[in-house]
User: What shape does this take?
Amino acid sequence: MSAGVGVDLENLWIRFGDFVAVRDANVNINGGDFFSFLGPSGCGKTTILRAVSGFLDPSEGKVLIGGNDMRGIGPNKRPTALIFQNLALFPLMKVWENITFSMEIKGASAKERRKRADELLDMIALPGQGDKLPSELSGGQRQRVAIARALCAEPDVLLLDEPLSALDLKLRQHMRTELREIQQRVGITFIYITHDQGEALTMSDNIAVMRAGVIDQIADGKTIYNDPNTAFAASFVGENNVFRGKIKQVMGNEAMIATNRSGDLVARISTANQGKLKEGDDAMMFIRPEAFAIAPDGATGDHFVTARVNHEEFEGNVFNIFTEGEGGKEIKVSIPNHGQSFQDHTGQNITLEYEAQNAVLVPAGELAAE
Amino acid sequence: MNLSFLRVSIWVYLAIFFLYLLGPLVIMSVTAFNSSAFPRMTPWECLTFQWFGELFQDQRILNGIKNSLIIGAGTVVLSVAMGLAGALMLTQIWPKLRATYYTIIIAPILIPGVVLGISTLVFWDRINRMLGLGADSVLSNGIFLTVIGQSTFIASYCMLVLVARLQRYDVALTEAALDLGATHAQAFRKILLPFMRPAIASAAVLAFLASFENYNTTTFTFGEYPTLTIELAQKVRYGITPSISALAFIIVALTVFFALLNEAKLKRQELVAAARKNATVEELAGKIKLPSFFAGNVAAMLVVIFAAATITVVGTATAYSPDQCIANVKEQKQLEADQRIQELRKQREERRKQREADEAEQGETQSAPKPSNNSGFGNVFAPNALSGDEDESNAEPQPSTNGGFGGAFDPNSLKTDE
Amino acid sequence: MPRFLKEFFNRNGTGMGLAILGLVIFWTIGLIILPQLSMLDFSFRPNLPPPEIGGPKDVYTLENYKYLIYGPEGGSQDYNAVDLRVFFRTLVAAVCVTIFNLILCYPIAYYLGQSKGSHIRIFAIMLIIPYWINEILRAFALRIIFGETGVLNTLFVGLGVFDTPFDFIRNDIALYAGLGYAYILLMIFPMYNVIESLDGNQIEAARDLGAPWWRIHWRVVIPYAKPGISSGCTMVFMLSAGALAAPQILGGPSSLWFTQLIYQQFNDNNDWPQGAAYAIVLLVTCILFVLAVMRLFKVNMGDIGK
Assistant: This one.
């Protein structure tokens, strides 16, 4: 893959009055990467995107594109193209005029523009639709026109601001694959903003998890899922069960925590926190629903949890068991469906077993809102 | 309450309301075609087009139209520009200033036009003096002052029209254009301006009409350049003629015509949009087959009928000559007047005879005051009657009543009856 | 540079930003605020020939305002009865015209706002067309109708209602009809805009509960339409109090409108400061009156012009 143009954020602060929208962000995005900012709405990810595209000046710090400081350079001079959340297709222009707007600005002839529009329409699988108005297209088609319009400007970096949020579920899943394909074909850097962890995990090379203006973790999808840095990252990306407690004993990469409800439990300390978590610290242990297995009754130890089953449901590929957990929260357990007969445990106590390897320990912190 | 009764009363009310609203215009328009020198509908004398001819020969009216057009053009440009800037500012001003700013730019609508005219005059006169310029400088020029004075409040109307559309504008469109490499000016010209075009057109029409009909402000600022409205006001205040009705008729006709045209255009846009929706890709790429201009478009048909009627009327007007009719009416009036003079003479004769007879019979008895009074009326009236249709306003009804009274009040004639 | 200005230029670009800012400042400061202040200042000065302006005699004085109340110095009367009477008559008449217009237009606005169908568009066009005709011509049309030998008199005398032509102009009927006529549209449209957005179900619901039609209006429609009603009334009151054309054309010879006094001061007496003082009195009184009435009916300034 051709090495595209990278984007770097250095000590980036963005304030609106007293409100800090982005707090000391440091991100290196490699050229040609598909990079996602993942976080709940209001976490500052769109603000970062607007700072990269040039609509906002950073209060402090730098935005570098291809190693060049972008301060004082307007959005129309930056090698970026932005795909807006609502797409922002020009309603009065036909599709082909929309796509080649960037060429019109540079004074290209109508003939050239027509030709380029036809090429791009072929690429986005909308051949011959150039003479329609945006209002005459379906949601998915509009989506693709917006991408073509941005690509026509031949940017070094394509910025996408939750472009799939307006589509229905089926189309959204289809467009994920398509976006990834387009990115690999054109080989330029994509920066993608989303609150949907599924989108981020399936498409991205790397993901930055954001919370309230702070970047919690930057890593590839697998690492973020399996080895989160913070309680927020653990609880925001994928489903997770949380156990609170105090660290009783650190044993190399593992530690024992004392929980109120389930006694002492053992877990692996997440990579970023190894050597930092000390005995006596408040900590949180996260175990994914699929990391549990049902153990024989009466089994005890530091990797067993006993709880009463509230209810169960059958989801097709898995059986879900919900048991009483801490602070009113339920513990969710997913047992893969191998076609075995499944016993209903509702109302009974069961013992759950996990491997310490699959339980992650992070410092106690804010959880993602449900 | 009885529903049908309610419905009937609503329709009656609507009818009365629109009669009040449109009746005066219809009557005024009709008087333009009556040969009577005083604009009126009854009694109908002759169909004539002479008032239109007179109108087009009136240098002051023509000059007024010229001034109005110049001032109108200036006001449209200035008010639409200020209105658009004001609307743009309103959508992005610092929230704390917003209410104050809105009050300031909306206030000119509520300030009496007279006050605006005076303040404009006083303020620019002062600026003029401060700059040490003479009375003939640009700043004390009637056209400049009128454009400035009118734009002060017309810009507020424009702003209201423009901000209504601007509120539906998605700022992301401008940002998208910038992002794709456009400068701010290009984004404005290629994206915002086309979006605002319908509202700008409405605002421009509104501004022109408001400027064209403005009187209160202009009357203080026009200086050496009286607009049509000023000229009309002078004419109307010091005597009215049907040539004003003729002008009014032209304006009414143009207004109705353009209203219908606009309606037809809107209807057509609807039809085109509907057709595009159903069109296939090939049709769109090639020549899309649009419905003809008139299909299902009542307003468009009315426009054509209207245009045809206008051509017919103008054609008739060039060929038609009401001279014969006017001559007939004149003759008729002459006859009536003669007849009345005859009657008066006869009455006077009778009175004289009576008096002579009375004097002969009763000697000293006097009834002189009354007859002399009556004959006074007759004398005052007689020259008017002879001048025919020059001054008809009091020529027609009064003679008959006077004549009648003349007879009724005369005690002597009563006596004769006895 | 303040932050919001910086943002403003970032958002609009330097060139466009300067153009917008320049036009807005020219309009608000140069055309609206400074001329009004200038007129206020002028109204406190004596009437001097141009060479003496700025000279030793050019001092602030209350003379022009005193004149409205006490009349010319050494005059025979204690008060300027003529001008004061004209002033109050103008205000009272403007209130009457406003009320007349409100009563006349409310049913129409309600009907247009609550009915559906293509005929509503036609009605709207019929409403707008008279407004596009020149103000002078509208007054002229009414003068033709109300004249001594006009259509109304011909009709009434012909029907035997009156024995002799009735002088509508001398009795000010023509004037009130003309003022009402001139501002119908400004009364209807604000009310129409509000009533149009009223959910018809509310009326249905009230009717369902057995409310008679007048109570539906009193309790449901009028409270809802209050912003529109106040907007329309404000505009009609201000414009009729400040009207000049209609009183000049339709007013009787003896009955003056206050704006006509201002006009006379400017054009006939050539006493600009006096005219400016009268204009200030008219403006301030009208604004205070409107604000007082708005406070009485609990309406916001922001509703005007919507």
Q: What stands out?
A: Chain A has two domains: 7-226, 239-363. The mean pLDDT of chain A is 88. The longest helix of chain A spans residues 169-186. DSSP finds nine helices and 20 strands in chain A.
